[in-house]
Design brief:
With about 200 residues, the protein is an alpha/beta fold. The protein has one domain (about 1-200): 2-Layer Sandwich (Nucleotidyltransferase, domain 5). It is built from eight helices and six strands; from the N terminus they run βββαααβαβααααβ. It has helices at about 60-65, 70, 80-90, 100-110, 125-130, 140-145, 160-180, 185-190; strands spanning about 10-20, 30-40, 40-50, 95, 120-125, 195-200. The radius of gyration is 16 Å and the shape is globular. The protein starts with 11 loop residues before the first strand and ends in a 6-residue tail after the last strand. The relative contact order is 0.20.
């Protein structure tokens, strides 16, 4: 049972999405899912897939992500990829930086394709950072890798696989700091909605 494990011993899925834009309710969709499973500070599994959207990418998105329309030709659909990704995730707690953004695209995909709503706990490293480093003004991923001394290549930033790995190592160091502050189990952080934006089920 997840609720009986310490935070450091729990397996988490840290994920990141690249998308055609910012607004899933206005027709934007996922073009890349990158994720890792991490336990005790070690990456134990990976997921990465490019996704063919139903519209042409804008020059702005191409510039930000480095993903081109050519790269997405022949890739699987959002429907297929989200279904497979959630099967890979299972009932594990999910973690993302600025998680409200990423989970909104997963939620919209579930709605569009008549999938079951996800019941996973969703944890936000942005909220944890604001709690642990309340005196700091900046909490972007690029800032956090420097703050937590995580090796980082800015040229690879904004690719989902690379960002999910960086977020995973940041998150593990955050868990160590949280443990020093008396946060030892899932229940301890689930009381704080800025850390856990969706409680989901912790007794799976």
């Amino acid at each position: 049972m997840i609720s009986e494990l310490t935070l450091l011993d729990t397996t988490f899925v840290i994920f990141d999405l690249e998308t055609t834009g910012l607004y899933p309710s206005s027709g934007d969709s996922i073009i890349e899912i990158g994720a890792v499973k991490i336990k005790n500070g070690k990456i134990i599994d990976r997921y990465d897939e490019l996704i063919k959207p139903e519209k042409i990418l804008s020059e702005e998105i191409i510039k930000i992500t480095g993903i081109t329309n050519e790269m997405l030709k022949g890739k699987r659909s959002e429907k297929e990829c989200v279904k497979d990704f959630m099967l890979w995730v299972g009932d594990l707690p999910m973690v993302a930086h600025n998680a409200k953004f990423d989970i909104s695209f997963i939620d919209m995909a579930c709605l569009k394709y008549n999938f079951d709503n996800i019941k996973n706990m969703v944890i936000d490293t942005l909220g944890i950072s604001r709690y642990l480093e309340s005196s700091e003004r900046k909490h972007s991923l690029a800032e956090l890798v420097k703050r937590y001394d995580i090796p980082w290549d800015e040229n690879k930033h904004h690719r989902a696989d690379y960002d999910s790995e960086g977020t995973a190592f940041i998150f593990y160091k955050m868990l160590q700091k949280l443990a020093l502050n008396g946060f030892n189990k899932i229940e301890d952080i689930s009381k704080y909605p800025f850390m856990v934006i969706r409680k989901g089920s912790i007794n799976t």
